[in-house]
Amino acid sequence: MLKRTDYLTRTYGKPEGWKLAAYEREYGGYQVAKRLLTTMSREQVVDEAKKANIRGRGGAGFPMGVKWSFMPKVVGAKPHYLVVNADEGEPGTHKDRTLMELNPHAVVEGCIIACYAIGAHVAYIYVRDELHLSKTRLWGAISEAKARGFLGKAPFGKDWEVEVYVHSGAGAYICGEETSMLNSIEGRRGEPRMKPPFPANAGAFGCPTTVNNLETIASVPAAFGLGCDEWSKLSALHTIGDGGVRLYGINGHVKKPGVVELAVGPTFNELIHDIGGGVLGDKAIMCVIPGGSSTPVLRPSETVNAPDPKSPMHPHHGKSVFDVPLGVETMRQCGTMLGTCCVTVIAEGTDPVWCMQNLMQFYGHESCGQCTPCREGSAWLHLVCTKLLDGEATKEELDSLHDIANGIMGNTICAFGEGTAMPALAFLQKFRPEFEAYVKGARKRADAKLTVEPWS
Predict the structure, then answer these.
(1) Which of 19, 134, 311, 333 could pair with 100 as two cysteines, CB 3.0-4.6 Å apart?
(2) Which of these CATH numbers, 3.40.50.720, 1.20.1440.230, 3.60.15.10, 3.80.30.20, describes 352-447?
């Protein structure tokens, strides 16, 4: 169901909408944080946050309020930390940077509330170093908030010190994984850690830590301002624990790419045609990548298989996956992931072998190298795809792509490996004839190109 909202984007396009004056005019400033810190206990804030049903906006979709509840209830000898993930290195993903550039005060206010809820006094916002404007706007918002007494020793007169810092990453995709990010913040090599222990027990500097995506944190003031129950009910999927609104990205072969705020639950068809203006050249859709390049592709011809009347997907049984409301659980039932919710549309006629080779080149380059299946497997996938395009691969090498990808699945410390293998397996399964055409010599690299011109 397509339902436009402006809980996160009200300052977008407004004159100096990133400044505190605009945030006070459009959102009432930091009044939500003031109310929570001065009238509610930490435990009450966490309990209320659970009612909002905010699923993590960074990819995994874990419920925010539940994650907050994992933190120790009592702050002991080790301080607690909040780490906000704004690395946004997933290809095809471009939503968090809009919040940092156009509504940074929502992020800062969300940090204040989250710090109070989890017992932290310090928040680190981890931003890709290339996003210079994002960092500048965040630091500007922090300075304005600090000058007004919203940050510091006693925000709003509450004896609960909160400081927020922006930490620059170095452009490594792996640092979007939460434990790699923690290593990076500590000045270590960006590599994932073994879990357990989980960050809530031993995170940044060995201390209890909550890691949330930036959009997740930016949603907090709006959710509490409206009321967490009411916020959840804005979503068409709130009955299955997926509440509120979120930012949807639309890119690829669409006429109007961009970012839009909608209540949770639009369909692919609504995003592509009503928001994206349709496909470039009015071509048919070959497939979509649902939420960042690490999610398996879906084709319009795929249908929902949920014959059990007790299944929450039963109302969609037999429908095209393009007519299913986009949510964390619904996309899992469709055999993919919602991920970052930035949809990449690929038009009919585009070469899927070229698409996969392009993705595998990225993953082979970005693997941190710690786990052998990922380090060797991602490079191997790229090598075989390149040989296919060059007309040099055998049938046996094509078949080996399945074995390589399956050898990565479940055999790595972090989810980077699965994020490489899952899209590879999906392309192989859903476009097998196109791959075989290269082995048979029916297609050549010269055919591997986009069939529509990108937007100007």
Answers:
(1) 134
(2) 1.20.1440.230
